[in-house]
From TrEMBL:
Substrate binds at residues 19-24. It comes from the Bacteria. InterPro entries: Dimethylallyltransferase, IPT, P-loop_NTPase. Pfam families: IPPT. Keywords: ATP-binding, Magnesium, Nucleotide-binding, Transferase, tRNA processing. The lineage of its organism: Bacteria, Bacillati, Actinomycetota, Actinomycetes, Geodermatophilales. This is tRNA dimethylallyltransferase. It comes from Goekera deserti. GO terms for biological process: tRNA modification.
Length: 312
């Protein structure tokens, strides 16, 4: 059992880290050991029908452990961190009140922070945002990413070049505050007592696992999944259409890439994203890091969760 928090309720256990480290398997094993339930914090697994490309755990992988906040949004809807945060906290509150350990798992760092911490984000300026959005439509995300790298290299390293909305927001904050985007983010104040577990692997091993995962996606019918979602409006989705793999297969379906090019770009883009995830999570001094390849991983993580004095 985990130590109770100061309020007498179970703490939240967050399992974070880069893509392809093995977070799902560890979280399910921890849930079985702790009598917990899983709350998804992967932004793309929130979308209905985006299963193969997001490595969304199927019923076999869940091993009977309840999973919450999967398949919430239509692929045409934009991602909304505040909407997710409210839904996730409702699940966490319900589980804690019932004496159940919530296990928050995902590689979307901002989504995890939004649940665990109290964040007051920098103000927005509609005029600045409108101008930057117009520039995005005119010059494209690559140019905005180049500009962000000049004024805020750390933010540029953390944002995918294809993520126009994040690029606009980062440039907006830099212009409004005169400070780097990352530096302008608020210092977190805990909303819940929590233990954060980070999984990582050697870079060469992660690169190989990414390639293996992408091969498995294609073998499992990923292109067919994207074709089906395209018929349901995927191209209209400002967030889902940019997801790793989905964006590349859409380019393949539109004749812009060959099948081999789509696969190779999915691999290379995912590898770059993994490095950005690592950079994001490593900035959090509260994460307990583990090599996901260690043979005693479950016992080692379980010991940290058990021994950690929450709320002390």
């Amino acid at each position: 059992m985990t130590a109770p928090a100061a309020d007498g309720l179970p703490p939240v256990v967050a399992v974070v880290g880069p893509t392809a480290t093995g977070k799902t398997a560890l979280t399910v094993a921890l849930a079985q050991r702790l009598g917990g339930e899983v709350v998804n914090a992967d932004s793309m697994q929130l979308y209905r029908g985006m299963d193969i490309g997001t490595a969304k755990p199927d019923l076999v992988e869940r091993q009977g452990v309840p999973h919450h906040l999967l398949d919430l949004w239509d692929v045409r809807e934009p991602a909304a961190v505040a909407v997710y945060r409210d839904a996730a906290r409702a699940e966490v509150d319900r589980l804690r009140a019932a004496g159940v350990v919530p296990l928050l798992v995902g590689g979307s760092g901002l989504y995890v922070r939004a649940v665990l911490d109290e964040l007051d984000f920098p103000a927005t300026d509609p005029a600045v945002r409108a101008r930057l959005t117009a520039e995005l439509a005119t010059v494209g995300p690559d140019e905005l990413h180049r500009r962000l790298a000049l004024v805020d290299p750390a933010a540029a390293a953390a944002v995918l070049p294809s993520n126009g909305r994040r690029l606009v927001r980062a440039l907006e904050v830099v212009e409004i505050t005169g400070r780097p985007f990352i530096a302008s983010l608020p210092q977190p104040r805990p909303h819940y007592p929590a233990v954060s577990i980070g999984l990582d692997r050697e870079p060469a091993e992660l690169d190989a696992r990414v390639a293996t995962r992408v091969d498995a996606m294609w073998a499992a019918g990923f292109v067919t999944e994207v074709q089906r979602l395209a018929a349901e409006g995927l191209r209209e989705g400002p967030t889902a259409s940019r997801a790793l793999g989905y964006a590349q297969v859409l380019q393949q379906l539109d004749g812009e890439l060959s099948a081999a090019e789509a696969r190779e770009r999915t691999v290379s883009t995912t590898r770059r994203f993994v490095r950005r995830q690592r950079s994001w999570f490593r900035r959090d001094p509260g994460v307990h890091w583990f090599d996901a390849a260690r043979p005693d991983l479950l016992d080692a993580v379980g010991a940290v969760i058990t021994d950690r004095r929450i709320g002390a």
